[in-house]
Structure formats: C-alpha cells, structure tokens
Amino acid sequence: MNTLTIIAAAAENNALGKNNDLLWHLPDDFKRFKSLTSGHKIIMGRKTFESFPKPLPNRTHIIITRDKDYEVGHADCMVVHSMDEALALVKEDPLAFIIGGGEIYKIGMEYANHMELTRVHGSFEADTFFPDFDEDQWELTNKEHHPKDERHKYDFTYLTYIKK
Questions:
Q1: pTM score of the predicted model
Q2: Strands 3-11 and 114-120, how do they pair?
Q3: DSSP for 73-127?
C-alpha cells in the first residue's frame, strides 16, 4: 500500500450526516470526490454503502460489516468483517480511499497517510461525525477555498493533509 487516503466532507463541528444521508448538496465536491476516487478501491462501512442508490461506477467497493451473513450481489463489491481484512485487499494498490462513515473514519485514521477533507463552513445537527484528529500528526499541504454560490449553499474549503 502506497497511499491510503481518507476522503470526507465534514462541517466545522465535524458533522458528517444524519439518518444515513448527507447534510448538504455541494456539486463541485461530488465532482472532486468522483475524480479522485474513480478507478480505485474504496473502503466503507455498510451504512455508507447502503446510502448509495447503487454502487458507484468505476470503483471497487470494500464494505466492512459485523454481519457475517451480509452479502452484496455485485461484481464491484467485496464484503469484509474488519479494517484489517479491508487493508489486506488494498495492500498492493498504489492508492485506495476510506470514504466513511464516522466509525470507519475513526478506525482508518490510524492507517491512513493522506487525507482529503472538505471542511463545510457551518455547524449542523447530525448523528454521525468525523473524528477529531491530532493536527500535529498531519501536515496541511494544500488549502483551496470555495465560496458559496448559486449551486452551493455553503462556503467550503478543500484541505489536503499528509501524515507526518
């Protein structure tokens, strides 16, 4: 494994989602997510996977669940039961992504060496949160502000971090 990237959009209060849904609609962030993750393996929890209408095109989904009987009948989906199993499936890949949710991000923080965080400027009521992380362990290498506009209800900033 060369690069294991956490990719997330989280509010200033670390809110990620509520009732298995996103709290905002940011088309440019969706485009960036698609462009960064296309062609790669994406690691996620079962609830995150089930929040998609169908598997995301041009990506291999690695779904972590405690449910030993959980199955997904789709060629681009693999079911595993731990982060260790998920990491074993990406160890030969030059790049893989951890895409959520909250619990998977928390576990993945230990293993990731790169982070693409979209910080949504606002605080939201949520039931799922991005984990706090020690900014002393991460170096901010890029920061790109995106003001709100007719297609984006909130300002947001793309933050790229590399683990020190």
A1: 0.96
A2: parallel
A3: --TTEEEESSHHHHHHHHTT-SEEEEEE-HHHHHHHTTT-SEEEEEEESS----S
pLDDT given at position 70: 97
Domain count, the chain: 1
Q: What pLDDT score was predicted for residue 23?
A: 96
Mean pLDDT confidence for 44-65: 97
User: Is the Cβ–Cβ distance between 113 and 3 less than 8 Å?
Assistant: yes
Domain that holds residue 21: 3-163
Q: Is 40 helix (H, G, I), strand (E, B) or coil?
A: coil
Rg (CA), the chain: 15
| Residue 141 DSSP symbol | E
Question: Which amino acid, residue 162?
Answer: I
Distance CA 144, CA 65 (A): 34
| CA dihedral of 44, 48, 54, 57, whole degrees rounded to 10 | -40
- Provide the pLDDT for residue 133: 95
In the chain, the N- to C-terminal Cα span, in Å, equals 17
CATH number, position 39: 3.40.430.10
Which tokens is 20 given? 């298995």
Tell me, what amino acid is at 91?
K
